[in-house]
Design goal:
Length: about 110
Amino acid sequence: AEFQKAFALSGEDVELLSARGHFYAIVGETDKANEVLRQLEAPAKSTYVPSYLVARIYLGLGDIDRVFELLEKAFDERYGYLAYFNVEPIFDGIRADARFEELVRRVGLR
């Protein structure tokens, strides 16, 4: 309910929508997480939706290969939040993956 209220007050901010999708995914509400993915795909047809934000939802859903595909795209987009990628707690579960280390290196964080 709080996410819904915040989203409405934010003017339907895609970052907040992504956070809500990640939350749904990690608590096991996959139908709701997938609905948020559909909601992010709609504006992506006419405006920029950062791949990083979509990756967060797939991370919660456990689709790690898709997460890295989207993070690679975020790197190509030069998405600014990648500056925090190495310390962002939601990525703790994939830090041991060689793709994580490689991306951290390419971003220039090591």
